[in-house]
User: Fold these one by one.
Assistant:
Number 1:
Amino acid sequence: MHCNAILIIEDEVDIRENLKLLLELEGFTVFTANNGKEGLTKLHSMPRPCVILLDMLMPVMNGKEFLEAKGHEDLIATIPVGIVSGVADRPKMIGGAVAFIKKPFEIEGLIKFVKKYCKSSLDKAS
Amino acid sequence: MSRLERNRHSGFKNYIRNGFIGSILAAFLITVLSVIAIQSIRHARHNFLYQTSQELFSTKNLIYYFEARTSSFYAFLLTGNNKYLNRKMANENGFLNSLEAIRQTSQDSAVLQFLEDIIKINTEYQKHINRAIDLKLSQQILNNDFDNSILPTSQKLFQTLKAFELFQQQRYEQVRQQFLAISNRIFASFILLAILAILLASALGLLFSTTVIRLYRKSEETLTHLRRSKALTNSIIESALDCIISIDDQGRIIRFNSAAERTFGYSRFDVLGRDMPTLLIPPSFRAMYQTAFNKYSWTKESLILGKRIETIALKKDKTKFNVEMTITEIKFDGQHLFTGFLRDITDRKKAEGDKIKAIQARDELVGVISHELKNPLTAIFTSTELLIRAFQNVPNRMERERSLIERVQEATQRMNRLISDLLDITQIESGHLQLEIQENSVAFLIESAIQRIQPLAHSKQIKIETNISSDTPWIYCDKDRIIQVLCRLLENSIKFSPDQSTIEINATSTDANLILSVKDHGPGIPSSDLNKIFDRFWQAKQTAFKGTGLGLPISKGIIEAHGGKLWVKSELGIGTQLFFTLKRVSSFQTQAVS
């Protein structure tokens, strides 16, 4: 099963691109979206991701709304989501959310979390 | 008439009734004494005087009959008319009857002696008279012998009778004197008794009247006192800054003080006797008020009576305003009265609202700033991370640049930590700290904390010892937060411990709690600073050590949010020990989870 794709939904371009680069260096295929709405569209045009990294506070459609919308679509409802956010309070774990990773995150910790759900192409090679 | 005046009135009524009964008793006593005295005098008069006077009367009769008989006799002798003879016979009978009467009543020996003499002389005199009458009837001439015999006897009888009369008169006089003496004595006694009775009655009257007067004065004083005290109460109520409004059990206003007039805009003459809810309670609250009032009337249960509550009231101009109110109930003249003490708290409410808004604004600002700071921080983090990784692939490694980047990363971490601490302290102070309470193993929590802190401990070659027995109970807590607390305490200890020293973690359990402690062998804290260590930024001001200065206040806040306590013991030169408590899972439950 082709499952080393990751979707990053994050409006902050610096974080989005850095994260993409870091995860690509780790051997994952990374897709990005600017907000929740774009994320939903992307989900239908990309290979099914093994995990979604989701920011909470975003324009157009925020993380909470994305999770609600995702939860209503059977096809994508079960994809695990790691919430990566700077919000102080732990958000509600709905719509497939499995973890809350506080910003600023430790890179190692984040990679460890992603590896729980995704197989890296580097691991496959080794 | 007020209750007081009624009481006073009935008091006087009682006294007057008692006084009246007393007077009647005194009059009755005097009457009885008078009757007794009169009866005694009458009795004495009968005993002593009546009999003697009868005797004296009879004695006087004797003389009358004697003279009448003698004159009848002489008239017969002169005229020879039988009419006189009959008259003489009648007088003679009267004489004898009188004698007999005296003899029957008198027991005096002297009297009896007199009677005997009189009868003897009379018998002789009778004999002479009868002889003279016989001679006259036989037409014979009376001789000198007649005079010689009859006259001396007659004279003797007369003298005896006179003597008897004198004796009787003297006797009567004597008895009369005796009687007078006795009756005087009785009368004197009566007078004395009467005087005594009058004196007694007067004394009683005096006592009664002084008592009445005293009571009257006292009640007058009490009334004056009460009037003054009422006036004082009135002026206190009127001068109060709080509104004081009383209603009767029908909800009608019976008291409305000056403060109430000022606050509500009504004059008391507008509201007295009128229905309170329609005047002072906003329409939307009236139904609620009525329900509560009715419920109280039936069940005597009230949620607000005697408590300080905040509610909304209605002014005359129909504006609503916030009031703080206490309602009390009193029973007066068998009626339930309710008094409300109200205070306009519009200004206070506004100030409170402003304060809450200010705090909310501050928290919001801190939240927003912290959050907004986190994004650039994350960008810096990920960038430096990428750079470090990039350098790993560079042949000569560029050590200087690499260390510069590491310094950027370190500074970013410190900044991140400060932001997290600021967010934490804001949450703790606003009471919005969210906890996910679960059952956790103490050993696991300590192990996790040690693991995290190990690099720091290692840098100072400090050994961390844990003294936890295998039967240490599990605890209810938010896992992440307690690991955070343990890390902060350990970090603190490491910071102040000399190199190569030991830090001890101990756990002891009581019935309901588990006490955890972290002990170091640092310099200790002076007792004057012991209560300052939980102040925000206090440690940060002590320049010797780096830190946000929020570690201990946050730890304390987290433990207190768990319902526990955090405290410190320290001895200069020996070390410092920080303790905190958490609720333990009961032994039964521990068995279940393990």
Note: The helical segments of chain A are 13-25, 36-45, 63-72, 74-77, 107-117, 121-125.
Number 2:
Amino acid sequence: MSEEAGIDLLPATGEPVHVAARRLRWFRTAFRGYLDHLEGELGCTFDLDEGRLAAAFVAWLRAVEAQRPADPAARKTYFEFAAGLMLRELVKTMPVRTGTAPTRAESDSAAAFWPEGYACTMFCLTVARAALRQEFAEDAGPAPEALDLRNWWSFRENAREDPTISVAFLDLFMGHEPDWSTPGLLSARLRREIAKLPEGRVGR
Amino acid sequence: MTHLLPHPDPMPLREVLRGLRHTMRRSRRALRETVSADALPGPAALIAGPVLDGLDTLAGSMDAAGTDLAKRLLGGEAHRVPGFEALTADPGQEEAFAEATYAALRGALHRMGDGDAFVSEAAARRAYAAVVRTGRSAEDAVLTAADLALALIVGEAVRDVAAGPALRVAVDRIAPVAAVAAVLWLLADREGADADGALDAATDIAVALSDEIAPAAGARDRTRLARLLGEFASHV
């Protein structure tokens, strides 16, 4: 998929993407539209369980609200983190089933290996990129790590035991350093970022 | 001098017709499920076959007539439903509230797997009359919404839900979840949204919250329901 294609697939909205994404009707339309596109691109069919999608959405809203930071300076980190939590809830609930296997994906690609996981991951990456572009004029496509099939083997295997690891894998695919030990904690991520700041910048 | 008679309220007539439609739909389904002319002995089948066919045709006609009536009476109204504040700021909007709530409950039930359950517009009117009072402050919107949901549940605005594999929540939870879905939809910001999409979203959220709605409704706990409605009203 081209870097532009994903963002262009999201439904038009008069609201900022990060606001629209918190409305189930936009979220569902966006997700369904993204699956439709992937079906054409990969040559497969996906079945979407809208009830499961809603359950994932509700759990995601609660998870992001529970960790909303008070500090406005943490906003960008929070946006990225929220995308990881979105992926966690989708992987945990998994509202997508592959009907027919991909016929147009390379056999050694993530899309062929784990179509449902690939669809959920790329959707979350796309929503995150759209929001980050809109709010912070920042646009980075998926990192090279997102093309390495070994990462997807590890992702699928580990997420079965602990879906929260999805947050770390989304970080990896966004080109960030993942927090493998406490991926589901925003506070840990913020502490790590503060520790990385040059001396004298902390507290400004 | 000409004295104009007031227009009769059409709602009671609608309620009766809907009751008939509901009964015919349920009866037709029951007949199909329990009686098969093929299973009867020859002579009985000769008699029963045409009778059952006739009943099926009658029920089908009634169903079609009822549906047409509902469509005519309710057609497009979802697009004109005022916001929750406008409906409940002061008494006097019971007709608009009851019609909108009727349509929302029907839509929610359909999405939850029983589009044939009976919905009482009269019960929705009674709920409104019992809850909406003059002088309510805007801050109380979610509490009013919770009270309306409870009044819809207690007043049995949804009745005769049929158990079946298509139901997305347990049969005894359908009525409270539908009531919360309808009120959540009314409470939500529906500006610029297609009405069906917003109602489906409200219903799906209510279904996802059914483990919380059912005990709150069972305990008649307006505070817990208000908290849920307030938490999700801006996420429909």
Note: Chain A touches chain B through 15 residues (CB under 8 Å).
